[in-house]
Automatic annotation (TrEMBL):
<feature type="region of interest" description="Disordered">
    <location>
        <begin position="107"/>
        <end position="126"/>
    </location>
</feature>
<dbReference type="Pfam" id="PF12788">
    <property type="entry name" value="YmaF"/>
</dbReference>
<dbReference type="InterPro" id="IPR024307">
    <property type="entry name" value="YmaF"/>
</dbReference>
<protein>
    <submittedName>
        <fullName>YmaF family protein</fullName>
    </submittedName>
</protein>
Amino acid sequence: MEIPVSGFMYHSDDSDPQHSHQLFITRWDGRPVPAHIHEFRGVTSFDVGHNHRYVGTTEPAPSGVPHTHRYFTFTSVDNRHRHEIRGVTGPAIPLPNGGHYHEFSGFTTVDGDTPHKHSYSGRTSS
């Protein structure tokens, strides 16, 4: 029996020498697979005399199953430079009235006239 499946693939950023991709299924047996995204925003830590703001949208993930989201954005330009932010959220945290959010945290890339990085953390929208 054949089941038609459609979707798209993401390049994996891991360091696996075999090189891999992440498959994201959008239709299964002719039926759409619900997906969703979250917004995220925040302010980095204060380091080397300044901080940065950031805002972005996660990559899609399937609804109704345990999941995480990949995210990527650039910070605001402050002190004549910006940083890159990327990572994977934590698992979904259910809300009492339905829906969920994800926590995220990490460190920016190292940039600036005085090379440095910032920490960041927060919660996605629900």
